[in-house]
Design brief:
There is one protein chain. It is elongated and about 65 Å long. The protein is an alpha+beta fold. Strands 10-9-8-7-6-3-11 form a seven-stranded mixed β-sheet, covered by helices on one side. A two-stranded antiparallel sheet has the order 1-2.
Length: 189
C-alpha cells in the first residue's frame, strides 16, 4: 500500500547521519539482503522487500544527476554527479579537471571524505560506493575506505582495449548494468 511504501521511506530516512558508518552499514545490509515488511493488514502475508531489482528484467529506475546543490546544516555542496537507483543516491562522483595540474584525483577523494562528509553526511547514508576521477584516471571505492583502497578500472567488460577517463560517463553506461534507455542525465537547479 502507499502507506507501507511510505513506511519504508521513513525507515531509510530515520537512519542518523551522526553515526554515518553504522547507518550506512545498516542500509547496505537492507540493500544487499533485503528485508521483511510486516503488512498493515495482519491477515496478509509479510512481504520480502528488495530495494534494487537484481533480476534479468531490471525494473529499476536510473537517474544520473549532475551539479545538484545539496544544503545541510546551512552548508551548500555540489557533488559533480550522483547516480540514483530507485530514488536512492547509491553512487557519488567527484571529478577534477585534467587540464589543471594542481587538481589531482586525490583532491577528489579528499573533497568527498573530508568536506562532503563534514557538510552533507546525509547523502552518504545510502552510498554504495564513490567514483573519483581526474579526467584520465578513474577510481572507485567505499566512502569509508582509505585512498589506497580506491581502485582503478582499466577495462570495461566485453571491450578488448583499456579505457581512459576522458569519456567516463559513456563508459559507465557500459560498466554499470544500465540499459541506456533507462538512464536519464540531468542537472541540479
Amino acid at each position: 500500500t502507499e502507506s507501507e511504501a511510505n513506511s519504508i521511506i521513513r525507515q531509510i530516512k530515520s537512519l542518523p547521519a551522526f553515526d554515518l558508518y553504522e547507518s550506512n552499514k545498516t542500509f547496505m545490509s537492507w540493500l544487499s539482503d533485503g528485508f521483511i515488511l510486516k503488512r498493515e493488514d495482519r491477515n496478509q502475508k509479510d512481504i520480502y522487500i528488495q530495494l534494487v531489482d537484481n533480476s534479468e528484467d531490471d525494473c529499476n529506475i536510473y537517474r544520473f544527476v549532475t551539479q545538484l546543490e545539496i544544503i545541510e546544516n546551512n552548508q551548500k555542496r555540489i557533488p559533480d554527479g550522483i547516480l540514483y537507483i530507485n530514488g536512492l543516491p547509491l553512487v557519488v562522483f567527484e571529478f577534477k579537471s585534467a587540464i589543471r595540474e594542481e587538481a589531482t584525483i586525490h583532491n577528489a577523494y579528499e573533497q568527498l571524505t573530508i568536506r562532503y562528509k563534514r557538510d552533507i553526511p546525509q547523502l552518504f547514508i545510502c552510498n554504495a560506493f564513490c567514483v573519483i576521477s581526474d579526467g584520465v584516471n578513474n577510481k572507485a571505492g567505499s566512502f569509508f575506505a582509505p585512498y589506497e583502497f580506491f581502485y582503478a578500472w582499466r577495462r570495461v567488460s566485453g571491450l578488448a582495449k583499456d579505457v581512459d577517463g576522458t569519456e567516463l560517463i559513456e563508459k559507465l553506461k557500459q560498466f554499470l548494468p544500465l540499459n541506456s534507455s533507462l538512464l536519464e542525465i540531468g542537472s541540479g537547479p
